[in-house]
Each structure stands twice: as C-alpha cells, then as structure tokens.
User: What shape does this take?
Amino acid sequence: SSNKKRVKVYARFRPTSKFSHDNISFDKDGKVINIHARKNVSSEVVNNQLLNWSFRVDGILHNASQDQVYDTVASDMTLNTLEGFNSTLLAYGQTGAGKTFTITGATENYKHRGLIPRAIAQVFRSVEERSDHAVQIQISYFEIYNETMFDLLSTLPESETASTYDSKLTIVEGEDGSVCIKGLSMHQANNEGEALNYLFEGETNRAIASHALNKNSSRSHCIFTIHVRSKSRTESNAKYIHSKLNLVDLAGSERIGKTGSDGLIKREAMYINKSLTFLEQTVIALADKNREHIPFRQTKLTHALKDSIGGKCFTTMIANVYGEASQLEETVSTLRFALRMMRIPVQPAITEHYDPWLLVQEMEKEIMHLKQELEMNNTLANRSQISYDMLSESQIADINKQVRMYLQRKTTEIDVRNLRQMNMVFEQFRNVITEMEQDIKDRFRSKFVLLDKSDSEALIALQKAGIPLDEDGNYLGSTQAAAHGGGKQKHPTSPKRRSGKKSRAGGSPTHRAPISPSLPAPGDHGPKGIKSGAAHSQVVTAQTDGAESTKKDECSVSGELLVDDRSHSRPSTPPPRPVAFENFKKEQGCEIYRILNENKSHLQSKKQIVHNLAHAVNATKHMIDGTRMALERKQNERYEQGEFVNEEGETVIDEEEFQLITQLKNLKQTYRHDYEELRNVKSEIDYCQKLVKQCTQRLVLEFDNWYSESYMQKNGEANPLSWSVPKPGVQHPMRLQLANIPLSSEDEQDKFQRLQETMLGDQEEIAFQNARMRVHRRKVNEQAMNQAQPARRL
Ligand SMILES: Nc1ncnc2c1ncn2[C@@H]1O[C@H](COP(=O)(O)OP(=O)(O)OP(=O)(O)O)[C@@H](O)[C@H]1O
Assistant: This one.
C-alpha cells in the first residue's frame, strides 16, 4: 500500500554482451540493485578502495522485452487514465541508455514498438469495451528544445487550430493547479490508426542531432499526451471526466564533459543539463513535506510537468541505465536520481468536470421544479395569482407608475408580491430619481449657461465679456451690474462677503454668493424672508439668524458654474407646491406632521401585531384540526374494538385519548384567546387608521391655508409680492381679524383651561383634561342651541 502513495520507479538495463557482473548484481526479489565499484574507475588510477551502493526500486527490467516492460510499467497506468486519473510516465537516463527505445520503440519493427504505440492500442481496445461511456481521444505532441517549446504536430494539414512548428507555445496554469500549453494543437483520434499517424508525424519532426555517444541521440525532451474525455452514457448529468496520459522521453542526463560536444551541441547539452538539474531540484522539493514552494517555473520542462509529477497524478519513472563497467558512474547517478523520485508522494484523484451547457439545462430543470414547488405552497397557503416569471414590460411600466405615484404622495403603498417585484421597485426608484435629477439639471441648463469651473479659458472669456467673477471663478452678479461698472461694492450684511477683497471683475454692485446646491434647497423659496425685488438683479434673503444676505441668480451643479443668461430674472412665481409642502412640514406644520408620523408608526406596529396574531391563530387552527382528527380516529378505534366501562358504568379511555382531549381543550383556549386579541388589535387598527387620515387631512388643509396665505392673491393667482416677509404693519386680513379680538374675549373656560395647563405639568394629564373640557363645552353648546331654536321659531 505504501507503493500507491509515492512515485514508482523501475530500472531498465540496456541489453549488452558486456554486462559487468563484477560490478552489478541484483537481489533475488528482483527489486534491489547492488553496485560495487572502485573509486575513480574512469580515471584508471589504481585504487583499491571499494564503494558499494544498494538501490531498492519497484522493479528491475533486465533483458526485458518491450512486452514485459509495457505490462509491468504502463498497462495499469493506461487503464487508470481511462478511469479518469492523470498519469505520467517518464524515461530518464544517460544518452543512449534506451529512453526513446522504451517510450517510442523501434518504429521499423512492430515487435520492438514502445510504450506509446502499445498504450494507444490498449486505449482504443478499452474504449470499445466501455460501451456505457462516450469517450473522446485527443493527441498532442510537443518537444522542449533549448528551453523553447515546439508543437510536433503543427505541420499537419488538417490541424485547423495549429500554427507553425516554430510558433510560440506558452504554459498557462488554471485556477485548479492544472497546466495547459497555450497554442498547442490537439488532434482528435477516432481509432488506433489515426493516433499512430500522429505519433509518426511527430517522430519525423523531432530535433535530432548527431552526437559522440549516440548517432541518433535526441537532444530534446518530448511529451506525447493521450487526452481522454469520458462521459457516462447511462447517467444524465452534466458530469464528465477529463484525464491525460503523458509519456515523457527526457533528453540524455550525462554531463557535458563526457559527450565531448562543442558549439551548438554544447549549448544543447547545457540546456539539457540545466533543465534536468531543475527537474532534480523540483523532485527534491516535492519529496520534502515541509517545502512550501516548489520551483516548477524554473524551466519549461518542470513547468509543463507541474500537474504531471506527484500530487494527484499517478507517476512512474523508468531509469534507463547501462550495464557496462565503463558507464558505472552515470548508472549510479541515474539510480540516485531514481531514489529521489521514489520519495515524491502521490495521491491520485479523479477531477470531475461539468459540461456548462448541460449544467445550464440541469439548472433550468431545477428552477422549473422549484417554481412548481412554490406554486404548490402558494395554493396551500391560499395565496393566488403570484407569478415568479420574469417581469414583462407592462409590469415594469406599472411598477414605475406606482413608484411615481408614491413619490408624488398619491399613494402610500406599492403592491409587491415577490422578491423580483421588490427588486424592481428599488430599481424604478433609482430610475425615477435619476430622471428627476437629470430633469433639474436640464432645467438649469435651459435657464443658465453652464461652464466648467476648471475651464480657465472660458472663465477668462467671461471676464472679458464683462461678466464679473471672483477669485474662485464664481459669478458675481448680473450683466446689468457689470454694466454699471465702477469700484467694488460690498453688501453690508452678507455673511459670505469677504471684506477688503477686491473683485477681479470690479464694478459689480453685487457680491459673491455661496455656490448653492443644484436642487432648490428647503427654505430657498420659503415665504419667510424672501423679499421681492423685481427691479434688481439680486434677491435679499433674511437668514435664520436674522442677518440679511444677498442671494445671487447663480447656482452650481456638480462643480459647474451657472450663469444666468437673462441677468435680471429671478423667481417671480411661488415655489412648486411639493417643495413648499416639504418646507411646511419642517416648519409651520412640523407639530401636526410629527403627530401624523407617530400615528403612522403606531399603526404600523399594530399591523405587525395583527400579522403575527393571524399567523398564530392559523397555526392553532391547524393544530386543532389535526388533534381533532387524531381524536376522532382514536375514538373510532375504541368503538370498533369495544368500549371499556368501569363499575360506575363510565366509559374508560386510554392515556393517549386522554392526552388528545386535554390537548384539544388547551388549543381551543389558546385559539379563543388569540382570536379575541386579534379582534381587539384590529379595532385598534381601525381607530389608528382614522387618526392617520384625520392628521393627513389636517396637515393638507393647514398647508393649503398657509400656502394661499403666503403666496396667493385673493383671486387665487400667485402673488409675486407675497415672496416677501409681510411688511411691518401690513398684515393678512385674517391675522388682522384675529389680532383685533380683544384679550378679554377669552372666555372663562379658556382661562380655566390655560390655568390648568400651567398647573398640570404632565402632558398626558393635560391632554386628558382638554378632552374632557372639549366634550363638556360641546354639550353646553348643544344645550344652548336647543334652547335658542324654539325662541327663533317664535
Ligand atoms: N532494450 C533495448 N533493446 C534493444 N535495443 C536497445 C534497447 N535500448 C536501447 N537500444 C538501442 O540503443 C540505441 C540508443 O537507444 P535510444 O535512442 O533509445 O537511447 P536514448 O536514451 O533515447 O538516447 P538519447 O538520450 O540520445 O535520446 C538505439 O539504437 C536503440 O535501438
């Protein structure tokens, strides 16, 4: 079992008649290689010091046929790949030791074919046997030569996606740690023959260089991959498996010195050495449990093999070695590397993928199912006419309409039946508000010239045109004012005025106004303190602190300077009713508005209570029904089985029936109690609703009075002069009337009431006493009327 959790290693000796039995021996179990050597064997210096090594591997392939090698090393891996595991088989070793022979084999001799053609044959045999799976096989083949990747199948004419042999391939890592070679052509193989064609095509493209040790030595790392995509034909889900079998023929591992190479060959050897050194470093790091960083990216080889060595991948290495005494040093070096490989842990696992298209179909089915479930629940709960479909254009338009009505206070409720509608309500709120903002901006634009405050050229042009601006670029007044010219003029009472600072434009009789918000601010058009001055270009406003200030006809919208292009124009009409109403609620009508809100929140909380109670009553009702049915069942059973009667002739019931009766009694009690409570709260709600209605009416009425009093002439037209604060001594007729009522007209009851209010501090008690007094007063009035009528008839 320990073998399953690490990389497997097999040592394959290249057949030779000069096998050094003196130096190399195997243990009987066929897994241990013992090497005995004298130090400096190669230097031919007489040295009697013996060195012994012992290498335990997973298997020794000595004089083994290609058949045996495949069965021992690759057969299971191929099957694992078809099951969904990624698998990698590497051939590592000295140049000429038989790596290519092992992986590809002798192409001219069928008997000597290597692991790749055999794996291809087994894959297609197995696919035929697996009729319950739809399996798709694809082939890719690339080499890494001098740290550059080349697609060995890019030359195929049918390869649409493929590019040229020397086109750039790049390594891309997926979020799940998988690696893919971007630009590498993938070729669908429908049968063994097609797959073999790809192998031979790639073989002819391999970079081959003559070499001192091996005339046909491959100087590149070659990776042949069989990609398997398999999906069950019996299961209807979107799941599928994507796995791959990498067969890697590494370049020779010998040291540069030994090959005697120079020039290009030397450079090749340098790259090969570098990549194999990094492969070794990566292998050491992978074997170290405490290492967090694995240097995969150091070379193309390790980066491309990142998801193919150890980890979730079944990994096997064949260490190709020579048996001759002259190659002992390299053999030892190769076997040392092999032992390091054996320390790499593996935890093979299948990674399942989901076909996005099928997944969408599955989810659609699930949505259908959930909708049906919802419908059923709604039917059971007596909620009808609820649709969960996407909202239609007309429904959206309807929500938009409701939102507008709500904003105009024409309605207090918006009909919402599901989450989708609720979201749409919010969206429409946003749309309407954005629209309103835009509308306000547009209105400003139609009335003012909008300049970008940071546009210095435009500001200079304005100044040249005689339009006064201060040092901050704010408009200082009207063109009329500018036309008057002359020295600076300071407004005596403006809190914003900067005394002593000279206006750049000079000559403006007006002064700098604060940049006011784009929307008419509450109070801007309020009746208080806005003085009419049609002949002037400025509007004098009385500030809340009593100071006077000058308000200009310019505003700023989002940092833009607004310059009134009509110069003298200023508001000559009352503020729109909605704006005025907002102000009224904050000022004159604040008390009644506060009471209205209190009543509303009271009403709201009562509604919540009713909602909860209704739920409780319904739940109790259900429980009563259930208990009643259970009791009836129980009683029927008793009748059928025959009743027990005690000595007194009373029917004897069992414990369960007794419990049911008690439970039913308690439930009925709860039901009655809750129902009574529900009725009470409902009547409270009725009362609260009336209060809210009354308050609303009163608020509106008072506002109407106030509005017409403040802005309208008697004939109902807007009174521009009424923008001003009522001039001292000029009072509204109604106020005059009230003011004329002598104090002595306060009747005795009023006096008493005021006395009470001063004596009784408690607000609640005052309210109570007032109410009592009002009722009493009404009765007295009624009596008086009743007495007066007969007298009139007379
Ligand atoms: N097990 C074997 N049986 C028969 N011939 C073999 C065996 N192993 C290797 N050979 C022969 O040895 C020669 C070199 O083998 P091969 O090309 O496979 O070596 P290599 O390790 O791939 O070399 P390089 O690192 O240069 O690619 C070839 O002619 C091959 O046929």
